[in-house]
Specification:
Elements (H helix, E strand, L loop, with lengths): L4 E5 L7 H12 L4 E6 L11 H13 L5 H17 L6 H13 L4 H20 L2 E2 L16 H13 L4 E4 L2 E3 L5 E3 L6 H10 L4 E6 L20 E3 H9 L7 H10 L3 E5 L8 E4 L13 E14 L9 H11 L6 E4 L3 E6 L2 H5 L1 H12 L3 E14 L9 H11 L6 E4 L5 E7 L3 H14 L1
Parallel strand pairs: 1-2, 1-7, 2-4, 3-4, 7-9, 8-10
Antiparallel strand pairs: 5-6, 9-10, 11-13, 11-14, 12-13, 14-16, 15-16
Length: 439
């Protein structure tokens, strides 16, 4: 029995006729690739992306400003695509329809979704595949959350009755029939939903580059490329800022048991990176997957006697940051002290105000702020079962004269995060890469 693959192509892969031809070659090279989920054309050196231009058109209409120039640019982008693909597709009719929807006061979500809608129609015509509007496949609840039960039932039935289909990403429909878009940057979720609906054997994410390195290539020349990784390791990489795909995608695919392959449209024969529930038996990597790091964090350190006995301390502390819409991804606590690690420009802008609120709310003995902190994460599922990784990390750093300013280990023992000075970042990454990846 042949496998079934859902292929997802982002804005870069739809930016021009040249890129869409590459996407078509990928799809037609394997009959298992039956469903394609596509984005609107992304930015080019000469133009912003189609979706951004649609947002701008809607905004200008709301301000009673002329937006003809933007619509003309949208028409030019689609005309290049249609001409390059050799299609007799009526771009003018589609752009006129967009204009009409704006003038009729259609919602911002509806207008923004037309980029994916038009692109999917063009691509389906080029491939000779069925075009299926996402509004009839992907459904949201009234509160804007995906209605998975309805989506899986209806989309699965519709799509599995078709040999092939092209589906727009980025949007679906609300219970009242109005269009609802996903959050910008979360279009992969639509692809993952379709993969779950048809019980795909593999979900493919095609991008301009599919390489995920085992360390920062700006620090390590030619680092190893990660070929196999688990769902949990991918979530850990997202947590430290690598953002391979959104957590929503990983959690959805993990629940359905569907592997994800990230491949490059420019090197379609390359094996890319495969994400699975557990590592394949022939995977060479056993313990550490990646050394991932970021600079320019700030530590807010609070010292107060009896923190461990103040049950409302954490609520008041994080409440101050929440009021200023500041996320605190890391925190370290002791009996009489706590450090909050954050990376937020708004903190620098409102520093005096926030520190004043912390002083009033918590009445601490001392508050200190330290800037220039780098966080380096050692990530790997095997670390929870192999003895000695912790000591290897800190023996290696000590041997390189790198002082660890903070340490945090996840409860699942799949990551260890070390804080060092920004000035020690490169040395620390090189040291850990040599010790844990090369060795």
């Amino acid at each position: 029995m042949s496998s079934l693959i859902v292929s997802r192509f982002g804005g870069d892969e739809a930016a021009s006729s040249h890129e869409l031809r590459k996407a078509a070659e990928v799809l037609t090279s394997d009959p298992s690739r039956r469903y394609a989920v596509v984005s609107a054309p992304g930015s080019t050196p000469d133009s912003v992306g189609i979706t951004d231009m649609l947002y701008l058109c809607h905004a200008r209409f709301g301000r009673r400003e002329n937006y003809d120039e933007i619509l003309n640019k949208i028409a030019e982008r689609y005309t290049e695509i249609v001409t390059g693909l050799g299609l007799n597709f009526n771009v003018k009719a589609e752009v006129d329809s967009v204009r009409k929807s704006i003038e009729l006061g259609m919602s911002l979500d509806y207008v923004a979704s037309r980029g994916e809608y038009i692109t999917a129609k063009i691509f389906a015509e080029y491939l000779g595949w069925n075009f299926v509007d996402a509004s009839g496949l992907i459904f949201f609840n009234d509160d804007g959350t995906p209605d998975k039960e309805k989506t899986f039932r209806i989309a699965g039935e519709k799509l599995l009755s078709l040999k092939n289909a092209v589906i727009p990403s980025f949007y679906g429909s609300l219970p009242d029939g109005n269009i609802k878009t996903f959050v910008r940057g979360d279009c992969d979720t639509a692809g993952a939903i379709i993969a779950c609906c048809v019980h795909a054997d593999v979900f493919e994410k095609w991008s301009s580059t599919a390489k995920v390195f085992s360390a920062d290539p700006a620090v390590i020349p030619n680092p190893d490329v990660i070929r196999n990784i688990t769902y949990m390791e991918t979530l850990e990489l997202n947590y430290v800022g690598m953002n391979i795909v959104t957590d929503n995608v990983i959690l959805m695919l993990s629940e359905a048991g569907i592997p994800m392959r990230i491949s490059s449209i420019h090197s379609p024969d390359d094996e890319g990176m495969l994400t699975t529930p557990s590592l394949p038996g022939d995977a060479r990597r056993k313990v550490t997957a990646c050394i991932a790091g970021q600079k320019n964090f700030t530590s807010v350190h609070i010292r107060k006697y009896g923190i461990n006995k103040d049950y409302s301390f954490n609520e008041k502390l994080f409440g101050v940051f929440a009021r200023h819409h500041i996320s605190c991804p890391y925190s370290l606590s002791g009996i009489h002290q706590m450090s909050v690690i954050l990376k937020a420009p708004v903190f620098d802008i409102r520093r005096a105000q926030i520190l004043g609120e912390l002083q009033r709310e918590l009445n601490p003995e001392e508050i200190t702020v330290e800037k220039g902190l780098s966080l380096i994460a050692v990530i790997g599922e095997g670390m929870g079962t192999v003895k000695g990784t912790f000591s290897r990390i800190f023996d290696a750093l000590a041997g390189a004269s790198v002082k660890a300013k903070m340490v945090e280990q996840g409860a699942d023992q799949q990551n260890i995060i070390v804080g060092v000075s920004d000035s020690d970042y490169d040395t620390a990454v090189k040291t850990l890469y040599n010790e844990l990846i090369l060795n």
